[in-house]
Amino acid sequence: MQIEVMIDGSYSEPKIIILTASMTDEINNLVQKLSENNPQIISGSKDGRIEILEQNNLFKIYANNGKVFASTNKGEYILRLRLYEIEDRLNPFQFVRISNSEIINLKKVKNFDLSFTGTICVELINGTTTYVSRRYVKKIKKILGM
């Protein structure tokens, strides 16, 4: 896919034009994402207070015992949204789902250990270790260019 940005002072708001030979799933997904007006704010509660969580400060978001948590450099926060709702709000170029119950921030990954048979061990820069489920191994390998 080619991307071209043109700066023109005569436009008061951005205009997006997609030139394509045919409608594909990729184009449909792109149009849908561009059309969405979902709020990108994620808030979490900790110690009886609700705080706005910056995406750059998130290490991982995970579900455990029916609740959804966000792990940040300031600790753990409880989120009121479901994991799939949070996934829609996250930057898709920075966050990736590694299992049905966990999403990680790729910018917070220290390393991927592929020595485990059938799975991938992920070490985050805060020392947390987690695992990519078998279902998502192919997706992670594609992201890593393998």
Key features of this structure:
alpha+beta, 146 residues, three-stranded antiparallel β-sheet, 3 helices, 19% helix
Amino- and carboxy-terminal Cα gap: 20 Å
Q: Structural class, please?
A: alpha+beta
Proportion of residues in helical segments? 10-25%
Number of helices: 3
Instruction: Give the strand order, joined by hyphens, for the main sheet.
Output: 2-1-5-4-3-7-6
Number of strands: 10
Mean pLDDT comes to 89
What's the overall geometry? globular
How is the secondary structure organized here?
Layout: H1 25-35, E1 42-46, E2 49-53, E3 58-64, E4 67-72, E5 75-79, H2 83-89, E6 95-99, E7 102-105, E8 109-113, E9 120-124, E10 129-132, H3 134-143
Antiparallel strand pairs: 1-2, 1-5, 3-4, 3-7, 4-5, 6-7, 8-9, 9-10
Description:
With 146 residues, the protein is of the alpha+beta class. Helix content is 19%, strand content 35%. The strands form 2 sheets. Strands 2-1-5-4-3-7-6 form a 7-stranded antiparallel sheet. Strands 8-9-10 form a 3-stranded antiparallel sheet. The longest helix is centred in the first third of the chain and has 11 residues.
